[in-house]
Amino acid sequence: MRTIALLLAYDGADFAGSQWQTDIRTVQGALESAWEALTQEQRRIVLAGRTDAGVHASGQVAHVQTDTRHSLATIWRGLNAHLPTDLAVQNVGEAPRDFHARFSALQREYRYLIDCAPAPLPQLRHQALHYAGSLDVPAMTAALQLLEGTHDFAAFTTATPTQRSTVRTMHWTRIVEREWFDRRLLAIELAANAFLQHMVRMIVGTLLLVGRGRMTVDQFGEVLASRDRRLAGPTAPAHGLTLTAVRYPPGLIRWVEPIERQNGTTKVEQPSSYVHEE
């Protein structure tokens, strides 16, 4: 039995989320169908992070345990041949038998894009939230930095019966500019050991209140301390959010890099912990 890791990218606009659901199009469902078509195995594919309907990924990671004897190059090429055009495998790798895409991860990274131009750009309608106005970015940055460290993020999540703890560790945060289609966008970027349901979108929705002058930085801190969802801002729309990276201990996954694929062969001589970051 082998454990294969998959690095995934997808446009979430037409998916009802990442997790498998009966009779609904999901990322996991599309992956498992492609895997069966390639290997004739019915296997459960496990994702590192759950993304909601409309949320994208450029650095999602999944794993599957398999008896297939296909090479990594064949798995990579074959899966992409069977997958829809809005979902693609970016890399494949061999992992230890006990590797788990979710539980072996050390860090997840997300990016939320905001377009503040006077008029929306149609090409960005599924990738960025359009807000035609000015935002106080220094105040937003100061508020965002209050989230760094270990905190109870109950104010920024939807309570669920299965949620054991709402404490998470935010490793770093930043607000930077990113250019897409010659348009300068505001990117809110966060990295944590794990995220709660809707957590990034609720943080962004509350940060927008700060940016618009409807909430002070101190009030933002009070929302975090309160653990009260009712005090936070609205949940930002899903389409501006992308899972950009999942990090693992160095050398845990032996990723295949495109430069190492020559003449139809695959080399895995250089283990790497690199997943993805734009």
TrEMBL record:
Signal peptide: none annotated. GO terms for molecular function: RNA binding; tRNA pseudouridine(38-40) synthase activity. The active site is at residue 52. The keyword Iron does not apply. Pfam families: PseudoU_synth_1. Its EC number is 5.4.99.12. It catalyses: uridine(38/39/40) in tRNA = pseudouridine(38/39/40) in tRNA. Substrate binds at residue 110. One of its GO terms (biological process) is tRNA pseudouridine synthesis. CDD domains: PseudoU_synth_EcTruA. SUPFAM superfamilies: Pseudouridine synthase (SSF55120). Keywords: Isomerase, tRNA processing. It comes from the Bacteria. Residues 9-103, 143-249 form the Pseudouridine synthase I TruA alpha/beta domain. Formation of pseudouridine at positions 38, 39 and 40 in the anticodon stem and loop of transfer RNAs. Homodimer. PANTHER family: PSEUDOURIDYLATE SYNTHASE (PTHR11142), TRNA PSEUDOURIDINE SYNTHASE-LIKE 1 (PTHR11142:SF0). Belongs to the tRNA pseudouridine synthase TruA family. This is tRNA pseudouridine synthase A. It comes from Chloroflexus islandicus. The gene is truA.
